[in-house]
Amino acid sequence: MSNTQSRAPRPVADERVALKARRVSFSWDRTPLHWIPDDPFTTHTINVLHLLLPAGERWFVHVYKQVLPYIRDDRLHEDVIGFIGQEAMHSQAHDEVLPHLKEQGLDPTPYTAQVDWFFEKLLGDRTLPPGRAREWWLMERVALIAAIEHYTAFLGDWVLNADELDRKGADPTMLDLLRWHGAEEVEHRSVAFELFEHVDGGYRRRVRTWALAFSALMFLWQRGARFFMENDPTVLDGKASFKEFYRGGKRGVLPSTGAMVKSIPRYLSRSYHPSQEGSTAQAVAYLAGSPAATAAEARTPNGAV
User: Fold this and answer.
1) What are phi and psi of 6, to 5 degrees?
2) SS3 for the chain, per residue?
3) Exposure of 116 by Cβ count < 10 A (0-12 exposed, 13-18 middle, 19+ buried)?
4) Could you tell me the pTM of the whole model?
5) Taking the CA of residue 43 as centre, how many other CA atoms within 13 Å lie in the half-sphere pointing to its CB?
6) pLDDT grade, residue 4 (50/70/90)?
7) % residues pLDDT > 90 (the chain)
8) Closest CA to 125 of 193, 201, 67
9) What is the rounded average pLDDT for all residues in the chain?
């Protein structure tokens, strides 16, 4: 395994913090189906996170447990262990939203079954002989996770700064879930990329897996938004469209299309490092005041799982 890049990426600053999983919990009793008032499309576009993340982050954990023996750096090994703990908690927290949606007449099971198949079968373990073939498939998945984490960090940074959601009266419990998760994505945003650089770092692999990750995320996200809008029992003839997504970005209630497009060349730059994205200080500050995170801290004095 060799790094073929001509310039090794470097962080803009050493912002490393010790990663810990926070045992958060949320009560959804008072959260309406359309938790952004009078805006089912934006609500459901963001709700796709609850469909994708439980299976996706379980997959992250599964892959990273397999790659632990390849890590030869103690600090990185510690970061990956912290990353695994946080991702497991993210999966659980979003999974717990699904029964709430079902109680309100929107059963997500048909879609989540497809997402489970995507991560567990298409991207799951394969019957390969020990040696180069098995290692190749493991490194492909490590690179895929690095690409996906570029976008989870992008979304985390966006939601931490999406003040328009507050002005629109978005449900505070849902906002705290999204911002707690987003803050942790920003907090650990360098781990997946640094792990990929450590075990492989091939630039062609980075580009190839980015293309796959980006295409899959766009496909699954639009499919999920369409599923929600078509099955929402309170919406007549509901539809999801790129035009509505674009408008949501212009209003500030969704990530802007322009910002998403500009994030592509940054990740594909040979000098890219995730520390160039978002602010660790902002993420840590949010986590220090998050209702769910502070309650978790109170329940577990050291804040660890």
Assistant:
1) -75, -30
2) CCCCCCCCCCCCCCCCCCCCCCCCCCCCCCCCCCCCCCCHHHHHHHHHHHHHHHHHHHHHHHHHHHHHHHCCCHHHHHHHHHHHHHHHHHHHHHHCCHHHHHHCCCCCHHHHHHHHHHHHHHCCCCCCCCCHHHHHHHHHHHHHHHHHHHHHHHHHHHHHCCHHHHHCCCCHHHHHHHHHHHHHHHHCCCHHHHHHHHHCCCHHHHHHHHHHHHHHHHHHHHHHHHHHHHHCCCCCCCCCCHHHHHHHHHHCCCCCHHHHHHHHHHHHCCCCCHHHCCCHHHHHHHHHHCHHHHHHHHHCCCCCC
3) middle
4) 0.92
5) 23
6) very low
7) 89
8) 67
9) 93
Q: Which amino acid is at 292?
A: A
Instruction: Output the six-digit token pair for 137.
Output: 């498939």
Q: Which residue is listed with tokens 């379980």? A: 58
The confidence score (pLDDT) of residue 129 equals: 80
Question: What are the angstrom distances between the C-alpha of 101 and each of 13, 145, 179, 191?
Answer: 41, 28, 20, 32
The set of long-range contacts for 229-238, using a CB threshold of 8 Å and a minimum separation of 24, is 229/40, 229/41, 229/44, 231/106, 231/107, 232/33, 232/40, 232/44, 232/106, 233/105, 233/106, 234/33, 234/34, 234/40, 234/105, 235/40, 238/40, 238/41
**What's the rounded Cα separation, in Å, for the pair 52 and 117?**
11
- Model confidence pLDDT, tens digit, residues 154-208: 999 999 999 999 999 999 999 999 999 999 999 999 999 999 999 999 999 999 9
Altogether, the residues listed in the chain come to a count of 305
